[in-house]
């Protein structure tokens, strides 16, 4: 529960940070001596494009990782059940043979 709260905060910061910086950079700068704007608009568009691309790529990677782990868990459970079934089948076959021999 606590981790979910942190994820929400991190997600909100990731979404809000570029918007806030964009507003600061493209609005009239009240303190040019304190916050100098470096670069042209095209430079900043490239920067924010790569920033957004990295976030989207990271989110897709996390989704694929989660899906892969979930599917691997399902496959592992099926394998364990198959092994148990095979062991039980072998045990029953051996029991049947012993019962036939002891008649």
Blueprint of the fold:
Elements: H1 2-26, H2 41-101
Describe the structure.
The protein has helices at residues 2-26, 41-101. By secondary structure, the chain is mostly helical. The longest helix is centred in the C-terminal third of the chain and has 61 residues, at 41-101. The radius of gyration is 30 Å and the shape is rod-shaped. The mean pLDDT is 84.
Task: Give the structure's gist in a few sentences.
By secondary structure, the protein is an all-alpha fold. It has helices at residues 2-26, 41-101. The longest helix has 61 residues, at 41-101.
Low-confidence stretches: none
Largest sheet: none
Helix and strand pattern: HH
Q: Please report which band the strand proportion falls in: under 5%, 5-15%, 15-25%, 25-35%, 35-45% or over 45%.
A: under 5%
Number of domains: 1
Global Rg:
30 Å
Helix percentage range:
over 70%
What structural class do you assign from the helix and strand content?
A: mainly alpha
Mean pLDDT, rounded to whole units?
84
Number of helices: 2
Overall geometry? rod-shaped
The end-to-end distance, rounded to whole angstroms, is 62 Å
Work out the number of β strands: 0
Quickly list its features.
single chain, about 100 residues, mainly alpha
